[in-house]
Automatic annotation (TrEMBL):
SUPFAM superfamilies: GroES-like, NAD(P)-binding Rossmann-fold domains. The lineage of its organism: Bacteria, Bacillati, Actinomycetota, Actinomycetes, Propionibacteriales. This is Formaldehyde dehydrogenase MscR, NAD/mycothiol-dependent / S-nitrosomycothiol reductase MscR. Residues 14-359 form the Enoyl reductase (ER) domain. Its cofactor is Zn(2+). Residues 365-387 are annotated as: Disordered. Transmembrane segments: none annotated.
Amino acid sequence: MPQTVKAVVAMSKGAPVELVDIVVPDPGPYEVIVAIETCGVCHTDLHYREGGINDEFPFLLGHEATGRVETIGTSVTKVQPGDRVVLAWRAPCGTCRACARGRHHLCFDSRHQGSPMTLTDGTPLSPALGLGAFAEKTIVGEGACVKVDDRADPAAVGLLGCGVMAGWGAAVNTAPVQQGDTVAVLGCGGVGDAAIAGALYAGARQVIAVDLDDRKLEWARGFGATHTLNAGSGDVVQALKDLTGGFGPDVVIDAVGRPETYQQAFEARDLAGTVVLVGVPNPDMRLDLPLIEYFGRGGALKSSWYGDCLPSRDFPLLVDLFLQGRLALDAFVSERIGLDGVEEAFHKMERGEVLRSVVVNGGSTSGASTSGGDTTVTADGATGTGR
Ligand SMILES: [Zn+2]
Ligand SMILES: [Zn+2]
């Protein structure tokens, strides 16, 4: 039987999101119904709302989620009802030209749900990044479900579904940071802070956090940055060279994604150094760099999509690190809200007041307590400046 549940939908470009009833169909053979437990509020949700992704309104937002498997399709083998899963927006197909060469982390054809979710009048919804998890329940393709350890706080581990994985993976998978490297991270929101944590895990001997906001630099220090640099205090490129013996960092990770920061990253890195772009630029941005510098400096200029992660490999690993106290995933959770708090969370994100607001189902922004039983805002928060 199709089910009617509450969900957060962006009806039209720029309009505040609405909490409405949607219809979730029965699962097809390779589909899974997931009862959503938590879902982080990401910049990409806001981009959808603002029409920055495409015009396929109405969008069912939310893509950084954990839940319990409720029902599985007849051909599903990866998960069972009751499993705790983190949802991944990369669900490798296994057959595209990337997957065929063993490069599943580059899959060009992620397998999402085929059965449409709709408004109660039958209007089909476009689920954000193929997931649509600001909802009590959603339907996803089997490949989007990554089973993880039951003991971990779902609000924390759900952040692996997007922003934390993107930042961590930019450092660990894309760069990849090597033991003894010096690293700078431009932009210390959720993605940047995760990159700082990843760089340290990979063995960086120095991690320099750069941001315009002293509050974010303080949070970056909490994630282990060895040095901080306020980008408004002078020449960032020179300062990064000064902090690294006059040479520049081996790896510079741009978690902002603007031409200005990219140029700083390009110019600050050491000869033969690496730049990793993980912040998402706007479509109208352009870059003007001298080609001879591009050639003469050598090294590598890389982009990091979703931290080049393989969710089935990386999510369980990072949950283990969290449970062992080696990755402070919970420090990314600034506040726990209800489904009715998403619009306000967008504004907090824009004002740079939070690292991640996390929807906990059963909770309410206006109510006293979430089902997580904890509405405390931690000291560790910053706005996510990347995806
Ligand atoms: Zn594929
Ligand atoms: Zn995201």
